[in-house]
Amino acid sequence: NAGVTQTPKFQVLKTGQSMTLQCAQDMNHEYMSWYRQDPGMGLRLIHYSVGAGITDQGEVPNGYNVSRSTTEDFPLRLLSAAPSQTSVYFCASSFLTSGGRETQYFGPGTRLLVL
Amino acid sequence: GENVEQHPSTLSVQEGDSAVIKCTYSDSASNYFPWYKQELGKRPQLIIDIRSNVGEKKDQRIAVTLNKTAKHFSLHITETQPEDSAVYFCAAGGTYKYIFGTGTRLKVLA
Questions:
Q1: Which chain A positions have a beta carbon within 8 Å of B6's beta carbon?
Q2: DSSP characters for A76-106?
Q3: Which residues of B fall within a CB distance of 8 Å from A48?
């Protein structure tokens, strides 16, 4: 069980370039999400998905696209990178236990630098 | 918009003392309140959570209290140890959609 995996670990982009951050999970979780983490601002939800084919916006969706064609994969696309998107990006997958716990498992993160 | 305020931003305690971190939330529909611990360079990990129908929950040295009327909840760590040093985040929401606090950097001094 690899859990939640993310690639790449680190990426440098130039302003205006596009790229896709990959996220995959092998736990058969229905729910997946993308967060960005900036110093002093905690984790902010970008997009989330409650199942294959279903996505929705979080707090800070502008400049990002997502799709969910399979349960396992939830890629995040930066359409035209800007310096303000320099951040650490975490993908997470979740399930609901019978006891009501909504446990989120986070991936190791992708550190993105936009010049 | 909805927000979660977390205090203090930094907290230093002597080993063996207690630490308390407080959060307030604005969305009265929130019904789930998890706490995450993040060590330097690592991913956040869930340490404890509480549902809105419960006022207090304890797990060994860690406890969480919730006052839904006042919209605030707190994390209590007793008998702190050096390995408790990390950044702690509260969150409020439900059904997989949360707003996170800005984090508290806890330093446990040996």
A1: 42
A2: EEESS--GGG-EEEEEEEEEE-TTS-EEEEE
A3: 96-97
pLDDT in tens, A24-65: 999 999 999 999 999 877 899 999 999 999 999 998 999 999
Using a CB–CB cut-off of 8 Å, the residues of B that contact A are: 1, 6, 9, 32, 34, 43-46, 49, 51, 89, 91, 94-103
Q: Are strands B104-109 and B10-14 parallel, antiparallel or unpaired?
A: parallel
In degrees and rounded to multiples of 5, residue A85 shows phi and psi of -95, 5
Q: What is the mean pLDDT of chain B?
A: 93
Question: What is the least distance, in Å, from the CA of A96 to any CA of chain B?
Answer: 9
**What Å distances lie between residue A96 and A34, A93, A101, A104, CA to CA?**
18, 11, 6, 9
Interface test with B, best of A46, A102, A105 (most B CBs within 10 A): A102
Task: Report the pLDDT averaged over residues A84-107.
Answer: 88
Of A70-79, A84-93, A99-108, B97-106, which gets the smallest average pLDDT? A99-108
